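Entry for the shared binder. Reason: the reviewer on the internal report wants the predicted structure included alongside the sequence.
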Amino acid sequence: MFLANPSRVIALLVSGLVVACAEPPLNSEQILERYGSYGVELVEQDAARRVTSLYSLKNGRRVCRSYALVLFEPPDPSLDEADRAIRAGGSIGASFAGRGWQVHKANVEMGAIAVDSGSLAALMSIDVPAVLALHVYSLSVERDGLHLPYATIAEIHHPDYLSLSDLRRLYGRLPDAENATAERARVRAELREVLAD
């Protein structure tokens, strides 16, 4: 089987047959592989949302590679252990994967966002104005036949990390979803609030 993108392959044993499906690597894996370091800085958090800087180190300094706005769903009790680790500042994907959950991303929007000043440019150490890739998706997890929603996530990517064409290569095209327009509007409103300086 030929895979068109640098994905990890998850093999599942189903009735004696091996079935392979491609899953793009988690941000933590991609950043660590590309830059040699990875960390999560909690920018702000409350019960409904969290804002983080997923960073690498460059000359001993943090450089934000993905700025993530997380809009939490009400958590299922099955997710309590991972949710506690996440709300304590842990990486979402790694917190779930480390506890045996498969992480799934359903695309809501892939686009661009203009940045002309403020703390995001400083976190990313970029010159402004800049147009950055934006990826909005619904994150759910699955284990032992249990599939649960966890959050809607909007990620703004450093231009050296992921471009819009990189996102399309990794995640494909957007599905036609009835609620995508409303969800995009909700996320864009939250982003405007978070990015206001």
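Summary line for the report: Residues 1-21 have pLDDT under 50 and may be disordered.
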